[in-house]
Amino acid sequence: MRIDPFLTQRLMKSLLWSLTGLTLFFLIFIIAFISVKGLPQVTFHFLFHDIEDMGRAGGIFPTIVTTIYLTLVALAVASPLGVGTAIYLTEYTREGWVTRLIRFGAECLAGVPSIILGLFGFVLFVIKLNLGWSMLSGGLSLAIMVLPTIIRTSEEALKAVPREYHDVCYSLGIGKWRTITRVVLPCALPGIMTGIVLSIGRSIGETAVVLFTAGASLRLPATLFDSGRSMAVHFYILAREGLSMPNAYGTAAILIISILLINISAYSLMQRFIRRYS
């Protein structure tokens, strides 16, 4: 029995639209639910005051500072390593067992559960290197976690740059490194930034790794060697222990808003770079 191709097209189009709508519905529902529950708690006092009574009262300012510290340390370590690895894989080596081994290792690392990475970071950074529960231990552990994302997205972005750009630069006598830094990287920057933004979002929302390596101190960290509690860990403890569900929803609302603002800002930045180098 032959099925009308136009009918099949309409059915598949309707199915795809339905799946897209369902995905958007869940996204909007989660954002709306958390916003309705949490935004009434978000005040100046909530954002810029210390935690009081184990989280039952006060604000979340120390958790905001801790989250920023951890994310910056993770990006400062993972970004140059990830982009450098991607440049090596695409520009300085031919396809072979070395590149396949590196890609396989990155994919395996991306599949390791965060709780295992947290335990690894605890043993290596907290105990063996004697860094203790600190911003540095947490940031280094997060860097290991987000490194595969930056490597893969950066590599795909570099591969997407037309090969003709290289040929033109070489024909003009421009060296390889200058070609990479002046031509290839600017063209690939939107894709590289996408991987970094994804890493920021994952770092902000990570709980297990941070709990094992940065601790859960309620104090405001003054240096990279101080312990602290991130917003995700704070939300987890408040919700799990039942200390204050209103404050837990408020913390969750700040997390979602932060990630949304980061994604919107990064999207705008990428569009500017695309227009500039297109």
Annotate the secondary structure layout.
Elements: H1 5-38, H2 44-48, E1 51-52, E2 57-58, H3 61-91, H4 97-110, H5 114-128, H6 135-159, H7 163-171, H8 176-205, H9 208-213, H10 231-241, H11 245-277
Antiparallel strand pairs: 1-2
Helix pairs in contact: 1-11, 3-6, 3-8, 4-6, 5-6, 6-8, 7-8, 8-11, 10-11
Structural descriptors:
mainly alpha, two-stranded antiparallel ribbon, globular, transport, MetI-like_sf, Phosphate_PstA
What CATH calls the topology is: MetI-like fold
How far the N terminus sits from the C terminus, by CA atoms, comes to 49 Å
Number of helices: 11
CATH architectural designation: Orthogonal Bundle
Radius of gyration: 22 Å
Spatial strand arrangement across the major sheet: 1-2
CATH superfamily grouping = MetI-like
Low-confidence stretches: none
Q: What proportion of the residues is helical, as a percent range?
A: over 70%
Sum up the overall morphology in one term: globular
The proportion of residues in beta strands is under 5%
Structural class by secondary-structure content:
mainly alpha
The H/E string reads HHEEHHHHHHHHH
Mean pLDDT: 87
Can you describe this structure?
This is Phosphate transport system permease protein PstA. With about 280 residues, the chain is an all-alpha fold. The protein has one domain (about 40-275): MetI-like (MetI-like fold, Orthogonal Bundle). The chain has eleven helices and two strands; from the N terminus they run H-H-E-E-H-H-H-H-H-H-H-H-H. The protein has helices spanning about 5-40, 45-50, 60-90, 95-110, 115-130, 135-160, 165-170, 175-205, 210-215, 230-240, 245-275; strands spanning about 50, 55-60. The protein has a two-stranded antiparallel sheet with strand order 1-2. Helix 4 (about 95-110) packs across helix 6 (about 135-160) and helix 7 packs antiparallel against helix 8. The radius of gyration is 22 Å and the shape is globular.
